Amino acid sequence: MRGQVIQREKQIDVWLGSPARHLITDSETSAVMGVQIERNGQLVNIQARNGVVMSMGGFENNTEYIQNFIGVPKLKVIGTLYNKGDGIRMAQEVGASLWHMKSFEGFSFNTGFTFENPEEDRGKFILSPWPDLSHGSIFVAADDGSRYVREDESGRHGHAFEGGSWKNPTVFSHPHLIFDETQYHQIEENGELPYSEFFNITVKANTIEELAEKIKANPITLKQTMQHFNRFSNDGVDLALGRSGDSMRAFDDGPYYATPLATAMLNTQGGAKRDEQARVLDAQNNPIPHLYSAGEFGGINANQYNGGGNLAECLIFGKIAGENAAAVKQDLEAKLDQSAKENVNLGGNDLASASVLSHYSTGKDQYLGVSEAGIGGRVIVRITYSDDQLKKVEVLEEHESEDVGQKAMDQLPKTMVELNTYEVDSVTGASTSSRALKSAVKDAEQKAKHATEN
Ligand SMILES: Cc1cc2nc3c(=O)[nH]c(=O)nc-3n(C[C@H](O)[C@H](O)[C@H](O)COP(=O)(O)OP(=O)(O)OC[C@H]3O[C@@H](n4cnc5c(N)ncnc54)[C@H](O)[C@@H]3O)c2cc1C
Predict the structure, then answer these.
(1) First-to-final CA distance of the chain
(2) Quick check: 262 and 234 in contact, CB under 8 A?
(3) Is residue 67 part of a domain?
(4) 196 and 336 inside one domain
(5) Where is the domain boundary, 300, 317, 340?
(6) Are 288 and 250 members of one domain?
């Protein structure tokens, strides 16, 4: 997709780092006439020829919206760090109705946890099961130290089974995994940790009361929870939450451990309400003229989510919204302000690599290479190449994930130089990022060879 947009750079303008601020409406009809954006430090009014499509994602990183709409203290984002729900505010300004504001999807281990880490950082997405966190002398404690999730339940997209259906989970501010010394060793002995920081963030105490103090839980409650857990474990039946007796082992005499958790969130579903023609609706369910939406901004999933539904509606509503927004609208045509056209030079397609490569310098024997095939799009490298030797590989630009793709960016340049080739083994689990890096180095090397031939 990205490649095709770049190929059509003359037909398609792409403006990165140019956030939409407001929709512009006709004062008589309330029809949407365009968008006000911020580009190169100035506010610019963009006139729409036929329609505007809002596809601004969710509000994953807006704490106020999460508290107001979802009604939970906080969620730990394991996806995008950039969606702040701008679309919601803009849609509200033009009278759109909102829907599915409470729905969100999660993932990761147990019912959908990740580990607590600094607020501005993405949470660790742990895709594979991690049985040691749900089997043995271990449980999840809420803020006060009580149990509230069936630890051995495998969540469905972060939803927990409750009263006959799969619900968004109960969320606490500072839940913890609580475990004993035997469990500590079990986790330690079972090989490479899916989260390398696990033991670094784990707190230790000699008594369960002391542990409670350290994690700001209620010592009496936490002690009672452990005693109940031990009883259920000895009886082989979890009367509180229905965890399998086989998965429970009574706690030993300590020391005890607590690892901070957070409820993981992939993405929100809420946004402006849309109909089957992708038209954004107002509070009376009437379409707001010339305004359309697609993707998870106002996704169609209400409370329950079908796996794959988000990307499906990106494709389906993207097509419907695009076609309907592009259809000629006579009223807008009549109102087009021809005189406004030439006012500001906004530039063309920011994705086009020719202009982007010019931002980077090259010295003697240095060549730039680019690939658009990374998980996050573009990868730009600078290689130093002479006498048929790849002497240095520098990654100048990449947008790969910190936890997975980054490994390829860190490890492969060194290997390429050592083996004097871009054709090196990919990093396990980061094959797309590896491929993109190899392709960028190949591009640079071809330029180097071409330069020495001429
Ligand atoms: C780790 C992970 C795995 C997933 N796996 C699946 C899966 O397997 N199947 C599935 O169906 N779904 C999956 N999802 C969900 C799915 O990926 C998302 O719902 C989908 O990508 C959303 O696409 P979108 O285009 O609607 O929004 P986004 O991809 O979030 O794009 C919104 C864009 O709008 C931009 N934006 C925000 N505000 C402004 C503004 N003011 N002006 C201009 N631009 C703005 C943002 O920067 C962003 O680029 C997954 C999500 C995550 C995080």
Answers:
(1) 34
(2) no
(3) yes
(4) no
(5) 340
(6) no
- CATH label of the domain that carries residue 157: 3.90.700.10
Q: 384 and 324 in one domain?
A: no
* Range of the structural domain that residue 190 is part of: 107-265
**High-pLDDT (> 70) share of the chain, %:** 96
Residue closest via CA to ligand 1's atom 15 equals 310
Provide the 3-class DSSP secondary structure of residue 14.
strand
Q: What per-residue confidence (pLDDT) applies to 352?
A: 74
Element (H, E) at 139: strand 138-141
Regarding whether 130 and 234 lie in a shared domain, the answer is yes
**Residue 207 scores a pLDDT above 80:** yes
Residues with Cβ within 6 A of ligand 1?
19-20, 55-57, 79-80, 82-83, 86, 125, 266-267, 295-297, 308-311, 314
Supply the pLDDT for residue 355. 63
**For the domain that residue 305 is a member of, what is the CATH number?**
3.50.50.60
- Residue count of the chain, please give it: 454
pLDDT tens figures, 238-291: 999 999 999 999 999 999 999 999 999 999 999 999 999 999 999 999 999 999
- Closest atom of ligand 1 to 125 CA is 1
* Local structure of residue 82 (DSSP, 8 states): -
Q: What is the 3-state secondary structure (H, E, C) of 269-318?
A: CCEECECCCCEEEECCCCEEEEEEECCCCCCCCCCCCCCCHHHHHHHHHH
Q: How many domains does the chain have?
A: 3
The per-residue pLDDT of the chain, averaged, comes to 92
Amino acid making up residue 98: L
Residues 137 and 72 grouped into a single domain: no
| Residue of 43, 53, 56 to mutate, ligand 1, most atoms within 8 A of C-beta | 56
Q: Which amino acid is at 192?
A: E
136: left (phi over 0), alpha (psi -120 to 50) or beta: left
HSE-up (13 A, CA, CB side) for residue 284: 2
